[in-house]
Amino acid sequence: MIIRARRLAWLIGPLALVACGQKPSAESNIDSLDAELAGNATGNNGDPALRSALQDQIMVDPALAGQSNNDAIRPPQQPYSGALPPDSVAGTRSDGTATASGSSSSGGAKPAPAASGDCPQCKVKNDSVTLGALASRQADRRTAGCANRLRYSTGWVQRMPADLPLYPDARVDEAAGAADNGCSLRVVSFSTGASIQTVLDWYYGRVTAAGYSAEHQANDGQHVLGGTRGRDGAAYMIYLDTRRDGRTEVDIVANNGN
User: Fold this and answer.
1) Residue in 202, 244, 249 with CA at minimum distance from that of residue 223
2) pTM to 2 decimal places
3) What domains lie within the chain, and their CATH numbers?
4) pLDDT at res. 192
């Protein structure tokens, strides 16, 4: 009996030592840490910075939140425009149509006359792949002669003739210009949400107020407004059409840029 008791004690002893030296489980450590953090955050002696970070409401700026669209799966319906029209350009209403600015002498919108005759300039536009090709096919010799000197850059938008600025809310697609050897050629292509008739009336009011002649041609939904000014030989041509997305596409060729 004594031998058996000694053997049993010999086996139980190491097991007791193992039990005494066993480390707490990872789950037990996490529970203790959570309790400690919760106590620090809510107790009277807690860290004020930690308590503020955990309990304060999250502040959101609606204006900045509305701009967080860079990484969106669906892009915005309309791209942002980098064009800055001159101060003399009329403002726009919420529906995208222009409002007349200043007196009639400053070129407020005026109803354009109905299109007359054929539209040879419509064919010129359809046959021109680039802005340079469009300029080279102009009947005005001064314009056509400078077409081969065109340089492409959106910076030319800021040097459009003062009496032929971009339409309000214009979104520039392409622009080119020439400013050497007596050339002041400007060519720009842009789009707007306003209707063709609205844009046509807006430009008709401006060019006639500036002393230009104005002939309106149209064919199969395309419209062209063009004319000249005798006192300085200035000439312009404005092409208007409707894009597939419903926006109005406008191309302007003018030979008297700034």
Assistant:
1) 249
2) 0.61
3) 115-254 (3.30.310)
4) 96
